[in-house]
Amino acid sequence: MVITMKVAIYCRLSEEDRNKRTESDDSESIQNQKSMLVKYAVERDWEIYHIYSDDDYTGADRNRPDFNRLIQDAEACKFDIILCKSQSRFTRELEMVEKYIHDLFPIWGVRFISVVDNADTAVKGNKKARQINGLINEWYLEDLSENIKSVFKAKKENGVHIGSFALYGYMKNPEKKGHLMIDEEAADVVREVFSLFIQGYGKSAIARILNDRGIPNPTEYKRLKGLRYCQAKSRNSTFWRYFSISDMLTNEMYIGNMVQGRYKSVSYKSKITKPVPKDEWVIIPDTHEPIIERGQWNIAQELIKNKTKPFSDTGKIGLFAKKAKCLNCDYTMVSAKNHGKHYLKCGTRNIAKDSCIGSFVPVSELEKIVLSELHKLIDEYLNKSELLRRIELNTKIQANIDKTEKTLRTYEKSFSDCSKAVKDLYLDKTRGIITEDDFISLSKDFHSEKGRFERLIKQTIEALGALNERVKNSDDKSALLSEYLKVEKLTREHVNALIECIYIGKRNPETKELPLEIHWNF
């Protein structure tokens, strides 16, 4: 009686032989493998139990879905033979060759055959060949890993985005591979997070605001939009959390810098990664359009650096947090609360007896004083004489700008004349008016002159930029103060923009006057 053997066919896409026709079709490589292996089985009258196929998976990937189903069915003794095109299609790891082909398959009564490299566990003396194949495949994996790392490193250093997912706030540019473009819907949330933080809201408070408004977190947003995303392991992954806000506020990607190489794999055999020290990250500036302006970014980083903490009852950072200092000991004043009102006090008073005079001021009173001083400053700066002085200054700068622009036009014309002269020389050479030697000699002189005028043009443009910046700075100062002309209530954003620090002394018990010095940012 002839016993019909049941065979399981296993196919895997080769990375070096990928040729997909459509996203839903198996690759041509997979189809070729199936045709060859089916023919091989039919010629031997074997019954095909099932065709297992993994497309777009490497030979070192242990999480291949059909590979794992194949192993489970082999253990359950559902077939007699596993048939592959080559041993490398089954696995490229020597460890896996030993574990399954040489150890478990014989125990389960499963024969392994790879057609191209003549590996067959039923043939005595074939084991060494299989082990050599496994060793060669192991070397191949290691070399391939190093080659891929080199390619990725070069791409990172050129500012090309190589990640599987775009950062929240961005999307992959479909027309330019490796380039990011702004996703306006998500970018608006990023801008709001920075704005709230600068206004004085803590990270947990910002997360709470977003959750209360039902705004999906980055993972949930991408899922809802049908974009690729990394599934969070924690429960309630649709919620914003403290660390989501914290990571966002320190990510340079939002100011247009490409930041990559923050993690690296433990080895080419494992998908486990470990963090890389920040000084080893690959950061390439100005690779894509920023979502956050530099000025806003700098303010946020300064707040993070100073580690300003919010009032526990409101979740909002104090109006003058890290800005108010004791006039006596230069210690940063800390917040306190009594009968529902917020105060600032010198913390050194609590460290040792008589260590400080004990500066103390209600936040509401300090706000009124600052607003009053701000309005005085604005009135003083924006009065008629000051405006006339500024206009006179800008007139002088404008004269220099006009003169520089005239010089620039002269240089540009000279550069253009040199270019035309070289073309005319060439025509003269072709007409036989001048010899080739004369053409070479004269064209060198003209090219030299072109280079000189090119350098002069560059220097003049830089000088012109500096003059325009002076006008802009003068205008910006006036515009900045004009912006706060009608402010009646301070916000944390105002304080950050206008004030470097405030020194507060102890109130005079008789006159009730409060010694106070405001150091402005301009």
| Beta-strand content bin | 5-15%
Low-confidence spans: 19-25
Number of helices: 14
Q: How far is it from the N-terminal to the C-terminal residue, by CA?
A: 100 Å
Which oligomeric form is depicted? single chain
Mean of the pLDDT scores?
78
Biggest sheet, strands in spatial order? 2-1-3-4-5
Concise structural overview:
With 522 residues, the protein is an alpha/beta fold.
Secondary structure elements and their pairing?
Blueprint lengths: L5 E7 L15 H16 L3 E8 L10 H11 L5 E4 L2 H4 L3 H15 L2 E4 L4 E2 L6 H31 L12 E3 L7 E3 L1 H16 L3 H10 L5 H8 L16 H8 L8 E3 L2 E3 L7 E3 L6 E3 L9 H13 L17 E3 L7 E5 L2 E5 L14 E3 H19 L2 H47 L5 H48 L8 H7 E6 L11 E5 L2
Parallel strand pairs: 1-2, 1-3, 3-4, 12-16
Antiparallel strand pairs: 4-5, 6-7, 8-11, 9-10, 13-14, 14-15, 16-17
Helix pairs in contact: 4-5, 6-10, 7-9, 12-13
Question: What does this protein look like?
Answer:
This protein is an alpha/beta fold and 522 residues long. The chain has helices at 28-43, 65-75, 87-90, 94-108, 127-157, 184-199, 203-212, 218-225, 242-249, 294-306, 363-381, 384-430, 436-483, 492-498; strands at 6-12, 47-54, 81-84, 111-114, 119-120, 170-172, 180-182, 258-260, 263-265, 273-275, 282-284, 324-326, 334-338, 341-345, 360-362, 499-504, 516-520. The strands form 6 sheets. Strands 2-1-3-4-5 form a 5-stranded mixed beta sheet, sandwiched between helices. It has a 3-stranded mixed beta sheet with strand order 12-16-17. It has a 3-stranded antiparallel beta sheet with strand order 13-14-15. Helix 4 (94-108) runs antiparallel to helix 5 (127-157).
